[in-house]
Amino acid sequence: MNISEENFIVNLGIHIRQLREKKGLSQQGLADDCGITKSQISRIEVATINTTVKTLVKIANALDVEPKELLDFPLK
Amino acid sequence: MNISEENFIVNLGIHIRQLREKKGLSQQGLADDCGITKSQISRIEVATINTTVKTLVKIANALDVEPKELLDFPLK
């Protein structure tokens, strides 16, 4: 398999934004629920940062999904 | 949901080690296939580092699995 890392984090950001909006949360709301900054959420969603597994777990907890679901999206 | 971040990365490390061994790769072999150091693979497997999404993608590519499969394990 040869998935592009850059493409993957772009798609991850889009997927996290979709899950956040589905839950009716603002970036600030999600940030508050995760205990991270709104700026960090924003940068994850637009893929300007390469986030860590622990931050994924925080986001998954706040979105009421399992961490693996955050990585479950079709690659475009 | 309230998954412990620390517990999650411990289980992730165990899961990556299992997938690596299933593929018959040493830590050095996996490191070479990923373009990262053996020390980094070792530290991910024993959960002394909180790795990034891009590194997960490199490992998934080398193990011939999708990135989401790296996070697909029962939480203990």
Question: What attributes characterize this protein structure?
Answer:
homodimer, 76 residues, mainly alpha, 434 Repressor (Amino-terminal Domain), 0% strand, globular
Uncertain spans of chain A, ≥5 residues at pLDDT below 50?
none
Our measurement of the CA-to-CA distance between the termini of chain A, rounded to an integer number of angstroms, reads: 15 Å
Taking all Cα atoms into account, the compactness measure Rg of chain A is 11 Å
Q: What structural class do the secondary elements of chain A suggest?
A: mainly alpha
CATH class of chain A: Mainly Alpha
CATH topology assignment of chain A: 434 Repressor (Amino-terminal Domain)
Organism (chains A, B): Flavobacterium gyeonganense
Keywords (chains A, B): DNA-binding
Pfam families (chains A, B): HTH_3
InterPro entries (chains A, B): Cro/C1-type_HTH (IPR001387), Lambda_DNA-bd_dom_sf (IPR010982), TransReg_Diox_bact_type (IPR050807)
Briefly summarize what is shown.
With 76 residues, chain A is mainly α. The first copy, chain A, has helices at 5-22, 27-34, 38-45, 53-63, 67-70. Chain A contains 5 helices and no strands.
Describe the structure.
By secondary structure, chain A is mostly helical. Chain A has a single domain, classed as Orthogonal Bundle (434 Repressor (Amino-terminal Domain)), CATH 1.10.260. Chain A has helices spanning 5-22, 27-34, 38-45, 53-63, 67-70. In chain A, helix 2 (27-34) packs across helix 4. The longest helix of chain A is centred in the N-terminal third of the chain and has 18 residues, at 5-22. Chain A is globular and about 35 Å long. Chain A starts with a helix and ends in a 6-residue tail after the last helix. The model of chain A has no long low-confidence stretch (mean pLDDT 96). At the A-B interface, helix 1, helix 4 and helix 5 of A face helix 1, helix 4 and helix 5 of B. Chains A, B: Keywords: DNA-binding.
